[in-house]
Specification:
Layout lengths: L33 E2 L35 E10 L11 E8 L11 E2 L2 E3 L4 H13 L7 E5 L2 E7 L10 E4 L6 E5 H7 L1 E2 L2 E2 L2 H9 L7 E2 L2 E2 L4 E8 L3 H7 L13 E4 L1 H9 L8 E2 L2 E2 L10 E8 L4 E4 L2 E2 H9 L9 E9 L2 E11 L5 E8 L20
Parallel strand pairs: 2-7, 8-23, 19-21, 20-21
Antiparallel strand pairs: 1-8, 2-3, 2-5, 3-4, 3-9, 6-7, 10-11, 12-13, 14-18, 15-22, 16-17, 18-23, 21-22
Length: 384
Amino acid sequence: MNTNSHYKHKINNNHKKNTMTEIVTKQKENNLHIKLDTPIVDPTSNCFNYSYDITTAINTDLTKIKHSIDKVSFCIYRIVHCKNQQNVKHPFLQYLLYKYPPTQGNISNTMIFPFIKIKNNIKKESKEFIKTIIGKDLKSEGFIEKNKTAFLFYSINSVDDEYIDKVNFMTKQNELWWCIMDEICNHKKVLKFPIHKSVYNLFFNNPSLIYIKLNEKRIEIPIVAYYGNYFNFLPIVAALGQRANTSKTKSDSLFFSSFKKAIRYGCWTDDYKKKTVYNEDISDIDGLYHKCGIIRFALFIGKIDIINSVEVNKIENYITSSVWKTKFNSIFLTKIKFYEKELDVIPEYILKDFSQQTPLSYHEIDKTLLPPVWEPNFSDYNIV
């Protein structure tokens, strides 16, 4: 699958109709995509065992689609696991969404299921459309009807998906995005791009679509979080995962944060001073990197310890100790106390083990939008 395919679509002059009519070509593969090593799998592991039974939510008899249907939305999903991508702790679900271009008025950058307006023949037109996206025929597993829209479901396996073993470099111009359930159902956005209500409402109304299971028990859904650093360092981190972060504390733990907080460390040095690596300046005199970047991760947080209203001088001691690791898999930092006053901090996740992280994509930050120094309440941070 080409996640860089551009929908060279014909949008109706009336943008309020949100109408997409065709995809026509594939772009050349982006040479910034990072190819991951072939996974080495322990045959005794459960990391590739799962079930995703959506038959209770969908109608598998495609002949039952009503002739009054005038729109088809394509719900294409894949399940990432340790056999098709390295360093995946548990299987997790992704759905493919289409992002409108940045120049589409009030729907600019909105993410939605790929869709077509039906002209004459649902079966024929749907088959042609899915082949354009995937590059081959793909059989629909079934459908859900809502008003005059049919949501057709398709599963793509690793054989058909040439990008499942890569960490993709993505920009605002990319129109096809693999999204995790935390982004769809909880955040209702990917990075800064809003997800259309028709997408998350489909899952809210059919919750069995949200979960994959092992032995009838729900497998943990990973959360989305971010890591920021000088852009040219990101390919190594994306390929090998974030190693122990020693820049903030002496901890051997792993630090991740929100999109906004990741930009702090993805665009400026720790001390806002000029930084040189191998005799080459990578930032200006004020610590602003010449090229800013972040990585988007899926995190399995497991059993979490929520730090709320703890004295700031006690936090580092607690994080660097191994005490919390005997009971928890991660820490969620929300509030701190500073001279008896409670201060809200931008949420930060601290992980116990390297295996709890899986990179999803990486991005360059648009420096033209940045304030002189990082501001936690600034709202215009975005990728190029």
